[in-house]
Amino acid sequence: MKKLLLLPLSSALALAALAGTATGDGHADKALTAAIEARQAQMTLISYNLGILGAMAKGEADYDAATATAAATTLSDVARLNRSLLWPEGSVQGEVPETRAKAEIWSDAAGFEKSSEDLEAAADALVAAAGTDLAAVQAAMKAAGESCSACHKAYRGPRN
Q1: What GO MF terms are annotated (predicted)?
Q2: How many other CB atoms are there within 10 angstroms of residue 84's CB atom?
Q3: Binding site for heme c: residue ranges?
Q4: Cα(83)–Cα(115) distance, integer angstroms
Q5: Which of 69, 86, 100, 153 has a CA that sits 20 to 30 A from residue 115's CA?
Q6: Shortest CA distance to 127 belongs to which of 78, 76, 80?
Q7: What is the pLDDT of residues 53-86, one digit of tens each?
C-alpha cells in the first residue's frame, strides 16, 4: 500500500519540480526580453536626440541653443544608464529573438565598456558645444557619430 501511495506522490513531486523549472525559465526569458526592450528603448532615445542635433548640424533644422542643449543633455543622461541591467549575459543575437547584440559584448567586456565610455565622452562634448554655436555642434557631432559607428561595427550583429 505504501508503494502505491509513493508512486503518485513521487510523480507529482517530479512534475512540480519540472513545472518550477519551466516557470523559472519563463521568468529568465521575461527578464532577458525586458532587458532587450529596455536597451532598445535606450538606443531609440539616443537616436532621437542625435537626430535633433544632426538635423541642426546638417542645416535641415535651424540651430537653437536651448533645443540643442536639451537634446545633448538628454543624450548624455541616457548614455549613462546602468549597463549591467541592460546587457545581461545570454541576451545575445541568435540565442534570444529581437536583438542584434553580438557575443563580443561579453567576451570583450572591457572593449564594450570602453565604447560605452566613448559615447559618454562624446555626449559630454555635445553638451559643452550645444549652447555655443552651430560650428561647435557640427564638430562635436562628428565625434559622436564616430563613437556610435565604432561600437555598432564591433558589437552589433546584422539584421536578421
Answers
A1: electron transfer activity; heme binding; iron ion binding
A2: 8
A3: 148, 151-152
A4: 12
A5: 69
A6: 76
A7: 999 999 999 999 999 999 999 999 999 999 999 9
